[in-house]
Design brief:
The chain contains five helices and seven strands; from the N terminus they run βαβαβαββββαα. It has 203 residues and is α/β, with parallel strands linked by helices. It has a single domain, classed as Alpha-Beta Complex (Maf protein). A seven-stranded mixed beta sheet has the order 2-1-3-4-5-6-7. Helix 1 links the parallel strand 1 and strand 2. The longest helix is centred in the N-terminal third of the chain and has 16 residues. The model has no long low-confidence stretch (mean pLDDT 94). It catalyses: dITP + H2O = dIMP + diphosphate + H(+); ITP + H2O = IMP + diphosphate + H(+); XTP + H2O = XMP + diphosphate + H(+). Its cofactor is Mg(2+).
């Protein structure tokens, strides 16, 4: 039986919009877990892949549908790869409320005296046909760049305004959406995942 619906183990509107566009070639309906009344899964692990797998299993178990989960974050070289899996809550470590704008503010403050600005946005996508699927599909994307000294650009979300991509000479937030999606960490992972699904799943 071919797969037509896939539950996304996230309620992040930006992530949903990006992944819906990227999965469109498969003709799958991507349903956010919140639309099915599924709460967020715990994310106790220290690696992107473990958290993505936990989220996908949770969404598949609660929905009875195949599931895809993305765990992504910013890995700053000068911080030994942190904030990593704690990226979404980065600002809360410094007394700010959770949120994209505060994450950017906290990062720029913490990097004020740091000369090594190298960083990477990393996305790990995991897809499961069922909660007990022994063969999860795994795709990883990595977009390397440098953290700017101030936000630049109006597009995107998350750290896009401070993620400068040398090959374009611009931040992700300055790029048109289709260009960003083609080169972003999530775009790279989603393209790999689409190919993996085509080869391994009945679509």
């Amino acid at each position: 039986m071919s797969i037509r619906r896939l539950v996304l183990a996230s309620n992040n509107a930006g992530k949903l919009a990006e992944l819906q566009a990227m999965f469109a070639p498969l003709g799958l309906e991507l349903v956010p877990q919140g639309a099915l009344g599924i709460p967020e899964a715990p994310e106790p692990h220290r690696t992107f892949i473990e958290n993505a797998l936990a989220k996908a299993r949770h969404a598949a178990r609660e929905s009875g549908l195949p599931a895809v989960a993305d765990d992504a974050g910013l890995c700053v070289e000068a911080f030994g790869g942190l904030p990593g899996v704690d990226t979404a809550y980065y600002a809360t470590q410094f007394g700010y409320a959770k949120g994209d704008d505060n994450n950017v503010r906290a990062l720029l403050e913490q990097m004020q005296a740091v000369d090594n600005r190298r960083a990477a946005l990393v996305s790990t996508l995991v897809a499961l046909r069922s909660p007990e699927d022994p063969e999860p599909l795994v795709a990883v994307g990595r977009a390397a760049g440098e953290i700017t000294r101030a936000p630049v650009g109006e597009n995107g979300f998350g750290f896009d305004p401070v993620m400068f991509i040398p090959e374009f000479g611009k931040t992700f937030a300055q790029l048109p959406v289709e260009v960003k999606n083609a080169h972003s960490h999530r775009g790279q992972a989603a393209r790999q995942m689409v190919e993996l699904m085509r080869r391994a799943w009945p679509i």
